[in-house]
Design goal:
Length: about 270
Amino acid sequence: MSLHSINLPDEAAFSDFKNQCLSEENWVNKYNNNGMQVCVEVSPATKGNNGHKIHKIKCKITIKDVSAATMYDVLHDSQYRKKWDPTMLESFDIARLSANADVGYYSWLCPNPIKNRDVVTLRSWQVKDDEYIIVNFSVKHPKYPPRSDLVRAISILTGYYIKPTGPNSCTFVYLSQADPKGSLPKWVVNKASQVLAPRVLKSVHKAGQNYLEWKQQNSPDQKPWLFPEQSTLPMMDPAELVLQRADSLENVDESSKRDAQESEDSS
């Protein structure tokens, strides 16, 4: 078996992700305003490394007017994402791996002079005890190698934890450790994530506020993330995928040159 072969997230993986979302140990608050918090992980092992490590970032928002179930649907509904995500270039599901896992593609706009990014991820989800969890990480798919016009980013671990606080309110947590690759200094990446994360969460919250009305007009009974029998995706054996490690990215050298070249061109 390959060293980087794929195992679908199990109960332990979901539990570990939940614990990271709820933990306060080794997290430093970087933003706290209007019911929204942004924290970065600073573990003893990585203190004093001058920012060379990609931070693990955690964003928590208290939502008082949208249910946990609705926010969960918003995150899954790829058709609706086209309506509310202004940075999205392209997004689609590739194949189903199990009743609660799939593999998909996402590309997004980056501000100049940064090159646009894309990612191929394995996503898995769980609904248990009124808690909703979605996790993803980067994989290699044989039919979707890195493209020449985009920089392939790496999701080491990204996901959401949603907990109801009432019939129409919830706590919404986003946690991510991702490497955008290219030539961007790690401290720039870390700082940008702290600025951009609140904007993204505000957009997701607003999308939740408008989702029920939109869904009533757009296949209201179609929710394959809740009813896997509705899925029309082809099945795929997870063994055909390989864990995408940052150090094994095929075009990492070319990617590193692109951001630098665009910076020179824009100066």
